[in-house]
Structure formats: structure tokens, C-alpha cells
Automatic annotation (TrEMBL):
It comes from the Bacteria. Residues 370-435 form the Mechanosensitive ion channel MscS domain. Residues 1-21 form the signal peptide. Gene3D superfamilies: 1.10.287.1260, 2.30.30.60. The keyword Translocase does not apply. This is Mechanosensitive ion channel. It is found in: Membrane. Its main location: membrane. Pfam families: MS_channel_2nd.
Length: 537
């Protein structure tokens, strides 16, 4: 039942422009004169929609009015320099200002000479209101009011503010009509009876709109922070995937609350003036930041959930590899969403990242080592020469692998020191995984006096072989263990002892090696004392 109430709430508070609300005639923008005539015709149509909304405020009538303003702004104005998130508002505000201006100017003289086909700029005679011909995009070859003109419309509007309209109009002050406009949820409230200070102008908007916008955004943020506090308390000390799931819900709650606030401000408060740009940009970018947090949490949630699953195939998927992939994917996903948000706000983030000429080359060179180390870390996980916790030998050093990160791996040496080695360097050297061995080689030369008789040396060799073979961890097989006379020196004869110790644990190997060496020494002492080696042990 809860999700049904959420959907109903979204449907009420988040109206959207219909894809094809009505099949209207295409606006003629083939020439500057045609564009001016099309604009005057759209003014009459928008006036009628505005009066219909004022008579009966509703979501349907507001959407119809906004659709008409959006169409006029999109097709009659050059909005290329406006941030995407504010284009609808810029087009609507420019429409109202220009309507006030043209209502106070005479009609174009029908005898006005046609525009040169090669021209790309044209001004309404006797004014600085310019139109330009677009050369690219879906409106290529269309004549539209220039971006420079849009920026100067407040100035032009102030110049004709004291002039009366030259023709009958339903709305003689579009600027004031837009300033006092409110959405259907607020239209029925006694806004006009608010105290005088709440109607003061703040950067083009009434003070009550600014105050209400602040309260809406503050409420959304406080509710999100309240949910964050609840999640942190509930997930404290729990497993990793539960913590990431909690943060995913936090991100989702922030996205929903900020989107609700954004839509409420856009469709009901309807900020105007310069302050509206700041409010729309900040709110929209905050939504993208929350979405970036959601993407980051989702990547980590998937990785930690796989690792925590009872049937996690550890032999196929290494937990550290999954965490490395989660780290990389989460950063890429979050960065991509933030870049999209920056572009939506009019910041050319993609262009800034790419850079130009020397800047782009410097960025590529600076990132070369990072990319090389990242690929080195991935190759370590792919080839799996070692894992976290393994003891490895590389070059002249050895140690225990503590972590494998996206840039470097940390190795703890036998003396306890911690060394960070770039993955690219570690992937290039010969690495011996000491933890992967299933046995150790015991190989030592035991000196005995040269004057010892040969028969006694032969008996000693057999006794040492028997004692070595009696050790439980020594492999018994063809040729193993091996005990034989290896060398005759000037003062000693060397007896070579070789065996395979069946253990992967170095401590057990060292203990077994010590026992074998001491046992062999006792055998030599017994042979030197009485010629008859004593039994082992």
C-alpha cells in the first residue's frame, strides 16, 4: 500500500510536459518578419491560456500554459547559452518581457525589404532587438531572437515601461503577472493579504516566494538528514552490505525529497528573476549529487552482497577483486553522474575534463601512472599469483600481502614494516608465492671426521636415513628421503641429507628441520663415541 501512496503523491506534485498535448501548426521562422509575426500570434494564444488558468487554477491548465511557453521559448529564442536546467524559465521570462515590449511598438511595415539570404543577423527597425539565423541543431536555418537580445530585454522593457500598449491586450504587464504567478497548490491561498514586507522584491521575486523556497529546501534536507541519522544508528556495527544498503536508501530518500522540492518550487512557487537561476541550479545539482551517492552505494552493495552470500564461490571470485571493482565502478559511476549534473547546470565538465592541446596532453601524462597501476592491480587479480594473506617473495624481499588496492599493494615484511608497492611494478617482477607451496625442501650437508672407518660411515648413513624417514612429516617415496656421502675433503667427509617436508606452514617446517638436524648430530656423536650409533630419540 505504501508504494501506491508514493506514486499518487508523485503524480500530484510532479507534473510533466505532455509529449504531444495538442497538434498545433508549426511556427513559421523562415524569416525575421515571419518569426516576429509568429511571436505575436503566440502571445495571443498564451494570453488566453493564462486567463483560463487565472479563472480556474488547476494542474491541467498550468501544464497547458507551461507547454505553450515552453514551445515559444524553444522555437523562437536562442537558448543555446542558457543552462539546460533553466532554459524553460529563461524562455518563459523572455517571452513575457518581449511581449510587453512588442505590445508597445508598432507593427512591422509590410513594405520592409526582405532580408538578404546570406545575412545571419537582423534587427527590428528602430530598435536593438536582434534576430539571428541558426546554423546548426534541430532549428537550423530558423530565425530566432538572439541570446544577446534576451540578456538586454529587462533594459528594453524598462525603456518602454511608461508607454501604453498600442493595441488591445488582455495582459498589459507580463513582468508583474509572472512575478505574482503561483501554482495551483498556492493559487487559492490569500497571498495578496500577506504583510507588506513579504511582497518586497528580492532579485526579481517576491520575498514570500524566496522565503517559501528556502523553507521547502530546508525541510527536504532536514528530513533527509533525519533518515541518515536513523540509518547510521540501525546499521552501526552490522555487516558491510547492510551499511551500503542503508546508504542506498539514504541516497534514494534525498533524491525523492529534493526532486519533490524541485518540482514544487518550479510548478507552484515559480521563482522569477536572477534568484530563480540560483535556486534551480543548486537544487538540480543537489539531486545529481544524491544520485551519485546512490550509484556509489549500489556498486558497493552488489559487491558486498555477493561476498556475504553463503554460496559465495571464493575460488572463482576473489573478495578483494570484487571490492577493487566496486571501488573503481563506484567512482566512475558517481563521477559520470556528477559530470552530467554539471553539464545540465551549464558547466562544460566534459570539455574541462578533456582539456585542449597541451592541457589535454598534460592530463593524459599525469593519469598514465595511475592507469598503469590500476591495470596492474586488475592483472594481479586476473592472474591470481597471490592473494591477501599470502606470503610472497619478490626480488630480494619477502613479506605478507596485507591489501591489494587500485594503485598499490601493501606488503608487511618479517620485521613488521609495511611497504606500499605500485601494482605496475609488482606485476612486472618475478613473484614467488610461498603460501602456495605444499612442501618444504630439507637439504643439509653433515660433516664427519675423515679418519672415521668406512664401515662406520656406512652404518651412520643408514642410521641417519632411518631417523629422517621416521619423522611423520617427511615424504616416503622412491628416492626419498636421500642420505649419502657427497664429498671427501681434507679433514671431513660430507654426508648430504635431502628430504621433503610435507607442510605448507613455515613454523612447522622449521621445527621439523631443527629436530632432524639435532637427531643427525646425535647420531654422529654416538658413532664417534663407541662406533655404534644410538637409537633415535
Amino acid at each position: 500500500m505504501l508504494h501506491r501512496w508514493v506514486f499518487l503523491l508523485l503524480a500530484w506534485l510532479l507534473p510533466s510536459l505532455p509529449a504531444g498535448a495538442a497538434l498545433l501548426a508549426e511556427l513559421d521562422t523562415s524569416s525575421p518578419q515571419a518569426t516576429v509575426a509568429a511571436f505575436r500570434g503566440e502571445v495571443k494564444r498564451v494570453e488566453a491560456l493564462f486567463l483560463a488558468y487565472r479563472a480556474a487554477p488547476s494542474r491541467a491548465s498550468e501544464v497547458a500554459l507551461t507547454t505553450a511557453l515552453s514551445r515559444a521559448g524553444r522555437e523562437l529564442f536562442d537558448l543555446r547559452d542558457a543552462p539546460p536546467v533553466t532554459r524553460l524559465k529563461h524562455g518563459a521570462m523572455s517571452f513575457g518581457l518581449l511581449a510587453d515590449i512588442l505590445n508597445r511598438l508598432p507593427e512591422l511595415d509590410p513594405a520592409t525589404p526582405p532580408v538578404d539570404p546570406q545575412s545571419t543577423r537582423w534587427a527590428i527597425p528602430g530598435t536593438e532587438i536582434r534576430l539571428v539565423r541558426l546554423t546548426e541543431g534541430s532549428n537550423a536555418r530558423s530565425w530566432v531572437f538572439s541570446g544577446e537580445t534576451m540578456g538586454r530585454l529587462p533594459e528594453f522593457r524598462a525603456a518602454v515601461a511608461n508607454l501604453p500598449p498600442l493595441r488591445p491586450v488582455a495582459i498589459d504587464d507580463w513582468a508583474e503577472a509572472q512575478r505574482s504567478f503561483a501554482g495551483p497548490l498556492l493559487a487559492g491561498l490569500p497571498i495578496a493579504s500577506l504583510p507588506g514586507p513579504l511582497h518586497w522584491d528580492l532579485l526579481g521575486s517576491p520575498a514570500w516566494k524566496v522565503l517559501l523556497t528556502f523553507l521547502v529546501l530546508l525541510t527536504a534536507v532536514l528530513l533527509g538528514l533525519l533518515w541518515l541519522r536513523v540509518v547510521l544508528r540501525v546499521t552501526k556495527g552490522t555487516v558491510a552490505w547492510r551499511r551500503h544498503l542503508g546508504m542506498l536508501t539514504v541516497a534514494f530518500v534525498f533524491v525523492v525529497l529534493l526532486e519533490l522540492a524541485y518540482r514544487f518550487i518550479t510548478w507552484n512557487i515559480v521563482l522569477v528573476g536572477g534568484l530563480s537561476d540560483t535556486g534551480l541550479l543548486v537544487t538540480n545539482f543537489a539531486i545529481y549529487l544524491a544520485a551519485a551517492l546512490a550509484a556509489w552505494s549500489a556498486c558497493w552493495l552488489v559487491a558486498e552482497a555477493i561476498i556475504a552470500a553463503p554460496s559465495f564461490p571464493a575460488r572463482v571470485y576473489d573478495a578483494n577483486l570484487l571490492r577493487l571493482l566496486a571501488r573503481v565502478c563506484s567512482l566512475l559511476a558517481a563521477a559520470t553522474i556528477i559530470v552530467l549534473g554539471a553539464n545540465e547546470a551549464g558547466v562544460p565538465a566534459l570539455g574541462l575534463l578533456a582539456g585542449v592541446s597541451i592541457g589535454g596532453l598534460a592530463l593524459a601524462l599525469a593519469a598514465q601512472a595511475t592507469v598503469e597501476n590500476l591495470l596492474g592491480g586488475i592483472s594481479i587479480f586476473a592472474d591470481r599469483p597471490f592473494r591477501v594473506g599470502d606470503t610472497i617473495a619478490f626480488g630480494t624481499a619477502r613479506g605478507v600481502v596485507v591489501s591489494i588496492g587500485p594503485r598499490s599493494s601493501q606488503i608487511r615484511a618479517p620485521d613488521g614494516s609495511l611497504t606500499s608497492i605500485p601494482n605496475a611494478d609488482l606485476a612486472k617482477v618475478h613473484v614467488t608465492n610461498l603460501s602456495a607451496r605444499d612442501r618444504w625442501i630439507f637439504q643439509h650437508a653433515l660433516p664427519v671426521p675423515r679418519e672415521m672407518p668406512a664401515t662406520r660411515i656406512a652404518a651412520l648413513v643408514e642410521e641417519i636415513r632411518r631417523r629422517v624417514a621416521a619423522e611423520p612429516l617427511v615424504e616416503q617415496g622412491p628416492g626419498w628421503p636421500r642420505v649419502h656421502v657427497a664429498e671427501i675433503g681434507k679433514a671431513n667427509i660430507a654426508i648430504q641429507i635431502s628430504a621433503q617436508i610435507l607442510t605448507a606452514d613455515e613454523a612447522r617446517f622449521l621445527a621439523t628441520q631443527q629436530a632432524l638436524i639435532l637427531d643427525a648430530l646425535r647420531a654422529v656423536e654416538d658413532a664417534q663415541r663407541d662406533g655404534t650409533p644410538a637409537p633415535a630419540g
